[in-house]
Here is the input.
Amino acid sequence: MISTSDIKNGLCINYNNDVYKVVEFLHVKPGKGPAFVRTKLKSLTNGRVVDNTWPAGHKLDQVRVERRKQQFLYKDDMGYHFMDNENYEQATIDEKLIDNPKLLKEGMDVDVLFDSAKDIPLTMELPQYMVLEITYTEPGVKGDTATNASKPATVETGAEIRVPLFINQGDKIKIDTRTASYVERAK
Here is the structure.
């Protein structure tokens, strides 16, 4: 059991007979009344996101998770398939349990979270930043940069990202995988 003061992003808890991961939290101390913790939780079994509020000091049931390095193999109608690099066992994760699945590239290493007690895969986490190549984008028009304008671009995984007008086809860009947004041009 943990207290609401121990809540942090990425924490996994049992709530309403389901396993949830804390996506966001905010500790609120109003001028009048008791403190409370407002959270946004994502179900690791069905991908649903719920908002919840607990009074300060409330006890929660923490789920022990194990983070394992796995290699992304392929996607089919059953889901996304990953292989453990040490014992070569394969695990399948449903698409709705993965944040930004379109950024996955075959052969890349990712972290897969497993429930330690049941040894089942819960979710997959991409690295925070990835470098991908632009496979298609319209050329930027000269003089079109009066404001912070952007244009759509397709990266090598097939995902579409908004990029600045000076980015061209064949450029490599750094992407923030949490928001699927452009960060900078990669060297």
